[in-house]
Amino acid sequence: MAKHLNAIPTKHAKLVEWVEQWAAICKPEGIYWCDGSKAEYDRLAEEMVQSGLAVRLNPAKKPNSLLFRSDPSDVARVENRTFIASEKQEDAGPTNNWIDPKELKKTMLGLYDGCMKGRILYVIPFSMGPVGSNIAKIGVELTDSAYVVINMHIMTRVGTKVLEVLGDKGEFVPCVHSVGKPLAEGESDHGIWPCAPIEKKYIAHFPETREIWSFGSGYGGNALLGKKCLALRIASVQARDEGWMAEHMLILKLTSPEGKVKYVAGAFPSACGKTNLAMLIPTLKGWKVETIGDDIAWMKFGKDGRLYAINPEAGFFGVAPGTNMESNKNAMISASRDTIFTNVALTEDGDVWWEGIGYDAPGTLIDWKGQKWDAATATEKAAHPNARFTARASNCPAIAPEWEDPAGVPIDAFLFGGRRPNTIPLVHQSMSWEHGVFMGSIVGSEVTAAALDLKAGTVRRDPFAMLPFCGYNMGDYFAHWLEIGQKSTADKLPKIFFVNWFRKTADGRWLWPGFGDNSRVLKWIFERCDGTGKAVETQIGYMPTVDAIDRTGLEDKVTDADMKELLALDIDGWKKEFDSIKVHYEKFGDKLPQALRDQLKALEQRLAK
Ligand code: GTP
Ligand code: SPV
Ligand code: MN
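^ thats the input. predicted complex w/ manganese (II) ion below
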């Protein structure tokens, strides 16, 4: 039996018994209960530096920061190895991979048997949401990865305080994780990122029993189980049952020059701009954006009938490539210290570099695969396109003072969007809640590098940006959104908008500058929430008139002709869109709510006029 390396810090009998039971299966060398302290973080970081798994960056460049290089096969979420193992296949629905839970547990128990040999089993008690908040949820992750422990330290609230709130009977979501690479007697990782081959990777969710079992990957959402697994896949099931919302959304605070505040939440598929929008620095004078969250929103109705959102996370797991002082200064500052970098390139002076960092590579680099890299001769990228930084939210200069308010912030507007080079205009507004739900249900995007097993460049439907993250039947999820709309009134529900920063010209130029200039669209959205803001009603919803988007100082970059194109209603394009939505909707069969069928029909009729 594995021995405890420190004193068991809880009297929660069920928790202790569960830990012992998994230790008996995984057979680690020892069990260590995490306390979430800085000393613990520092010790584990130093151990990984000593063993060659991590590189300590030059403290003069990036204080208290580490670089990890993953195995080249373990660089992103693995959607085709992610499972919703509900008792009935129908409850996982047409968009999720399903295996019978009994069968999956049997397979996975076979893999877990002895999987932690030669490693330590870390017990990580964590809170999603401010510790003790009534919206927060507690999870406990068992893992054999110290990399996961230190990432969880940044991304969630870990340790002793959480166990205090849990008491000796409190509820927690049990999360089991192993990198799936046991060590033989005396063997070590030799500084190589441990993981299992793809066919042994399983990211499994058991929605009825609210359990998460992950095997074989050490990367991001596959391994940091508080994030996509708990805060979205399991939480979405709880939210459906309890009448709230768990969404793949950023949350931002928008302040006008007059000091009026609105809170905006936005769902964009992975690597489509949530972190950037959440930390935006407006190019419009007098406007201010502050960050509440950059990836996940949990929302509940307040007594006043408005939806209040909290960010369940405590850090950012942000995409590095493309992030620079121009595009996202606040992210750069957030990641300027106390940060874990994964799969970026290393400079000769112990700093990091990636494509789109804003300056040329300073000399020879070590690329994300650990090889020498020279700009002049390179045939591959120095940083992996899904290279990430794990940074503390508290290090973000734009973090809103109320970001940890347990009561949450009242949401005024929902945005949906994705990478659409054509057809979808810069912005349009829904005509009703139901029409807004329709908009969310048809979100599509060109595929990005955030998931391993997809073909980049093709457009796929990603309803509500939740395709890889909804823990139940997507048709039922649409119905849940419609029900949310029944629980309050139009004046109190968020207004719904569709945005597209990613329009391109035929020769591949961005039509819209994006980033800080997205504040110009936010301004129109702000005005629309106040009932002002010039708009015309079109076949697809309310659209700004060409002069309604403030282009002060931008007239050279975005000409009148560009603006016309960005705000044009492309009827032919939308007719094609209609055909593709029809195919998309067919997948859901009887589960597709009638209200959405009606919305599609109504769109068809409006387009025919
Ligand atoms: P996940 O963390 O995977 O959920 O991604 P995300 O939605 O937070 O995306 P993020 O903000 O990290 O942006 C991903 C990529 O899109 C980066 O390379 C950005 O530079 C780029 N991007 C973000 N906003 C814009 C924009 O307004 N215009 C353009 N052209 N690119 C953008
Ligand atoms: C995403 O892919 O949407 C992410 C990164 O936020 S991960 O945590 O790996 O899911
Ligand atoms: Mn995300």
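The CA atoms of residues 422 and 594 lie 29 Å apart.
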